[in-house]
Amino acid sequence: MNPIDPKALFRLSVLGPMVSREQLARGELQPLIRELAQREYAIPGTQRRHIGEKTIEAWYYAWRREGIAGLVPKARLDRGQSRISAPIQEAVLAAKRDNPRRSVRQIVRLLEAAGTVASASLSRSAVHRLLQQSGLSRLAGSASLPEEKRSFAAEFAGSVWYGDVMHGPRVSVKGQRRKTYLVSLIDDASRLVAHSAFCLGETALDVEGVLKQALLRRGVPIKLVVDNGAAYRANTLQGICARLGIHLIFCRPYAPEGKGKLERWHRTLRDQFLSELDERHIADLDDLNARLWAWLEQIYHRAAHAGLGGLTPLARYQRDLPRIRSLGAKAAGLDALFHHRIHRLVRKDGTVSYLGERFEVPYELSGKTVRLVVDPHTERVVGVEDEAGHSLGVATALDAMANIRRVRRKPEPAAAPGERTGPNLVEMAHAQYHGVKVNGVNDHGAKKGN
Question: What is the pTM of this model?
Fold first, then answer.
């Protein structure tokens, strides 16, 4: 299984609010594109924070044609060069400098109206690249109305999940007090917690572990809304969501109002669970999670919720069970979707290392760089792949004692050389050095009989 291109995953995350919709109403596409273009993004490989409307539109139609494959960037052969003639370039730059608020479309129309260029002869993408190269591609600040914010709720359970992390209490781990982090996934329509667990970190691996249990327990959501933290931006998490058809949507930075229901859940947990927790009964992380899960199922999911018209989260969720997307046939291969792939150089003895342990792989791979397929949750190596994602065999834990009795494979003996009939440099050197006569002449050049 090949990893998905990181830039394609980023582009899919930008398109989340559009591609997660079953159908866009007439006239709805362009306002959505304009809204997405106004947001700030952590764009891979650049310090820029904004994406142009035309770029987002092109990504959207590429996704509709080819899916995730259409979002993989394609290298341009004319990168860094403009095909616009020098006089037209000057006219484009002058039009932009004269009014920095002019868009590419406006500049093209202006030049066409002025007769500088023929109608439909000037490519907007070429103009955009020219403005980029000249540092003039960004619009100057424009006046706008205050951003409108409205409360909303998903119509059905399973439509939207929210994910976030909250700081938790300290627990004893191997004799030391360690801080915990609560990773939660909550359903928007029902307020049901798909899964939640205290972890010793807030990494992508912790988030993936909670997501895997949520999928097994509560089905597959249509959208997953998360913040912009590094854990949620990880390629592994984005790849999992892409393969399961989950639209991963990132909240705008510094806009916590986008996850109000999750913030309310965190407050409920502090007020009703953490405040009642008796730490004398908490020996380790497992004890803490055991009490969290019991409280969720016995109290939180069964308590009437004011935001649900008096229904309990469990009852509201069960009302939409026929609409919940199940894993179906993907359940059997769910573990494989959560596997990670890491590069390793195979040693001369046919072993690789992972988390301080050594594993044996097919000996023919010695000296080559391979991809280990690992299950990070169980800390075991599943197999070995090449760069194309083809299996190269299995990896087994090294048993050095068993290798004492193991029969080594030896190379086949070389075939016996055939009879030589041509000249031989060694024999010629021997004849010259020892004065052996060759063709009637000794090494001093004297002829036979002299």
Answer: 0.63
CA dist 97 → 118, 284, 366 (Å)? 22, 65, 61
Domain 160-330 has CATH 3.30.420.10: yes
Q: Is the dihedral of CA 20, 252, 217, 334 positive or negative?
A: positive
In Å, the largest CA–CA distance within the chain is 128
Residues 6+ apart with CB under 8 A from 335: 375
Name the residue ranges covered by the structural domains of the chain: 6-71, 89-133, 160-330, 339-404, 422-450
Residue with tokens 């018209």: 309
* Residue 449 token pair: 């009989």
331-370, pLDDT tens digit by residue?
988 998 999 988 888 888 888 888 888 888 888 888 888 8
Fold for the domain defined by 339-404: OB fold (Dihydrolipoamide Acetyltransferase, E2P) (2.40.50)
Same topology for domains 160-330 and 339-404, yes or no?
A: no
Q: How far apart are CA 39 and CA 65, in angstroms?
A: 25
